[in-house]
From TrEMBL:
It comes from the Eukaryota. It comes from Dendrothele bispora (strain CBS 962.96). InterPro entries: SAM-dependent_MTases_sf, Thiol_S-MT. PANTHER family: METHYLTRANSFERASE LIKE 7A, METHYLTRANSFERASE LIKE 7B. Pfam families: Methyltransf_23. This is S-adenosyl-L-methionine-dependent methyltransferase.
């Protein structure tokens, strides 16, 4: 690998710290309660720098993935500042659910959602602050968001998940890199939260297939995780693509329809990029 690719991440951390530190201290000074969530405050300011530029650079890629495929009830994992909302086709999306544990980002999400017609008062927007790995809480919020007359028709026994409260689309855009127990979390989301026939859409930076790049990703991951809360060395695309399910007779089967779905490398990503991405779409079997 080129030395510039190896150490570039270090200079990125230094520059982002320089730009985000003073705003972070100001936010905590204005609201001393935030001293209990310093990482949330810092990363909110980091994302205010990175997010808009990245979104602008990737708008055509995101539009091509999200616009034609996101439909029905959409669950956005790690919604950040709500950058994906503008790509939703409101003629196909009936409800936008933003899952974002970082409470410092919630006002941005609400503002962006409202500007595109998704509001809690209209019943087509829901903001959840739990972790993606907390499947029980996710399902609880989904169930309590259903209209009372619909809830009366639902019942559950022995922990069986009711299909009616599941979502039609799950999206994760650079979020699975920070999930606790990521492989297990992704599997449980696909099994328990996504409806049969639903779509799982993702854009994630992943572990490189090149051994030299992967070595440096593993080297930098603990440091980057402490700085930005995510890891560089997760084969997220393989975990998602390899999720299994059980059929009616208890036999192991693929979670995804064989006739639809794929994960591919972003063409514009250099091979030596420590943040090499995969973009993917999978459709859950019926």
């Amino acid at each position: 690998m080129k030395l510039s690719n190896v150490i570039g991440i270090l200079f990125q951390m230094i520059e982002l710290t320089r730009l985000a530190l003073i705003p972070t201290l100001k936010d905590i000074y204005k609201n001393p309660y935030l001293i209990f969530h310093p990482f949330y405050v810092f990363f909110t300011n980091v994302w205010a720098i990175l997010g808009p530029a990245m979104d602008e650079h990737e708008k055509e890629m995101k539009r091509g993935l999200i616009d034609p495929h996101a439909r029905g009830v959409v669950l956005d994992l790690g919604a950040g500042h709500g950058h994906i909302i503008k790509y939703l086709d409101q003629s196909k999306v009936t409800k936008y659910i933003a899952l974002e544990p970082n409470i410092c980002m919630h006002s941005k999400i609400r503002s962006e959602a409202s500007s595109h017609g998704f509001t809690e008062s209209n019943g087509n927007f829901l903001l959840i602050s739990c972790s993606a790995s907390d499947i029980s809480s996710v399902l609880f919020h989904l169930s309590t968001s259903i209209e009372n007359e619909e809830k009366s028709r639902l019942h559950s026994a022995s922990g069986i998940i009711i299909e009616d409260i599941r979502v039609d689309t799950i999206m994760t855009i650079r979020s699975a890199c920070s999930f606790p127990s990521p492989e297990k979390t992704l599997s449980r989301l696909a099994k328990n939260v996504l409806k049969p026939g639903g779509e799982f859409l993702f854009v994630e930076h992943v572990l490189s297939e090149r051994k030299d790049v992967a070595w440096w990703q593993r080297f930098w991951s603990p440091i980057w995780e402490a700085f930005a809360g995510c890891r560089l060395d997760r084969p997220t695309h393989l975990w998602i693509g390899g999720i299994k399910d059980l059929d009616g007779e208890g036999r192991t089967i693929d979670m995804w329809s064989a006739s639809e779905g794929e994960a591919k490398r972003l063409a514009e990503d250099p091979e030596e990029n420590l943040f090499g991405h995969r973009i993917g779409r999978f459709v859950k079997h019926l």
